[in-house]
């Protein structure tokens, strides 16, 4: 008969063994208290020293609201329906691609950030670009003096982005990466509130303020141009048609007057000579009716364009002095102690494990 009472080796660690192992490591680390205390002192010194050299960070905040566009209602909706019956598209839409989260991403896009960096600002009586201001703030020029490729590089205000060299593209890419990682935050503080905040952080107070305001303007202009592009195109077409029909109407009125002069005191038996005057009179009436309708549609297009243009309403702008955040001495001391002691303990544990494996 097979014996089922053969003991099975259990590789699992019991709770008692786990507690004993923890006590063993505790006593080991306690025996290394001098090293750990020394590491804590070194960490405290490093943390406090770092707090002295760390520049304060200024944060510029701009809040804005986006107009909630709806398709026309009431009288305007009726007028738009009338316009559509004549085959005219006045550019009114019930939505758009730049709404909600898409709009916040537009603020953080590389295109908008780089256009903002090329915006002109007045610093100490000299007009420079925000990109140059960023370079000066980070002392990049000093590092570039030894490299002839970088020493002559300039970022002029309102420079054409398409004309940049590969090196300029690379520098702009670094600036964008630095700003998007830690210097620029765009979003809603509360999902229930339709107010979006732009936060720009920098060690230079003026740069934070100027960049925040310039970014809001750059995105606002782009947003308005894109959103109202269709309405502006339709309005331009209508205005050209109005000018054309008005010119034809003036010509028809002149021809009527000339024809009437030519047929003044004409023999009633020669009515055929009155044909040009009658034709011109018909042209006047037709052009008058067309011009009247086009003027209506042109004014309606202007109303539509005005309706779509004020899309971004700024609520609060950054005001000097900006709120700043310092890396305090107490914070530096605590973080220095925690970080250095943590890595010291890891080193001690790794060293003991290595010795146990060797022996």
From TrEMBL:
One Gene Ontology MF term: protein tyrosine kinase activity
Subcellular locations according to the entry: Cell membrane
Cellular component GO terms, alphabetical: plasma membrane
InterPro entries recorded: Bact_polysacc_biosynth/exp (IPR050445), LPS_length_determ_N (IPR003856)
Ranges where the Polysaccharide chain length determinant N-terminal domain occurs: 28-116
Domain of life, per lineage: Bacteria
Topology with respect to the bilayer: Multi-pass membrane protein
Keywords: Cell membrane, Membrane, Transmembrane, Transmembrane helix
Keyword field contains Membrane: yes
Transmembrane feature ranges: 33-53, 332-350
Protein name in the entry: Wzz/FepE/Etk N-terminal domain-containing protein
Source organism of the structure: Flavobacterium flavipigmentatum
Lineage: Bacteria, Pseudomonadati, Bacteroidota, Flavobacteriia, Flavobacteriales
């Amino acid at each position: 008969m097979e014996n089922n009472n053969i003991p099975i080796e259990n590789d699992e660690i019991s709770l008692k063994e786990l507690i004993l192992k923890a006590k063993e490591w505790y006593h080991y680390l306690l025996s290394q208290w001098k090293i750990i205390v020394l590491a804590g002192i070194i960490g405290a010194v490093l943390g406090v020293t770092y707090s002295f050299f760390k520049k304060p960070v200024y944060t510029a905040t701009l809040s804005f609201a986006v107009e909630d566009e709806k398709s026309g209602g009431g009288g305007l909706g009726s007028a738009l329906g009338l316009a559509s019956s004549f085959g005219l598209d006045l550019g009114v839409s019930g939505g758009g691609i730049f709404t909600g989260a898409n709009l916040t991403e537009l603020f953080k896009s590389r295109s908008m950030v780089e256009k903002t960096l090329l915006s002109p600002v007045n610093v100490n009586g000299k007009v420079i670009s925000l990109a140059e201001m960023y370079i000066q703030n980070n002392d990049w020029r000093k590092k570039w003096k030894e490299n002839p490729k970088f020493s002559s590089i300039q970022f002029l205000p309102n420079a054409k982005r398409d004309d940049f060299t590969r090196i300029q593209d690379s520098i702009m890419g670094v600036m964008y990466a630095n700003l998007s990682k830690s210097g620029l935050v765009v979003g809603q503080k509360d999902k229930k509130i339709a107010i979006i905040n732009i936060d720009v952080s920098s060690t230079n107070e003026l740069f934070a303020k100027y960049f925040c305001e310039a970014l809001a303007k750059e995105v606002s202009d782009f947003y308005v141009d894109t959103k109202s592009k269709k309405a502006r195109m339709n309005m331009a077409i209508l205005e050209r048609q109005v000018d054309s029909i008005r010119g034809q109407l003036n010509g028809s009125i002149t021809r009527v007057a000339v024809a009437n002069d030519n047929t003044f005191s004409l023999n009633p038996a020669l009515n055929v000579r009155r044909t040009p005057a009658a034709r011109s009179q018909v042209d006047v009436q037709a052009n008058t009716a067309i011009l009247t309708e086009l003027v209506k549609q042109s004014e309606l297009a202007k109303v539509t364009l005005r309706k779509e243009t004020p899309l971004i309403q700024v609520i609060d702008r950054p005001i000097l002095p900006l709120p700043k955040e310092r890396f305090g001495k107490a914070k530096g001391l605590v973080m220095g102690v925690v970080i250095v002691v943590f890595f010291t303990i890891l080193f001690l544990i790794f060293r003991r494990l290595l010795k146990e494996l060797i022996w």
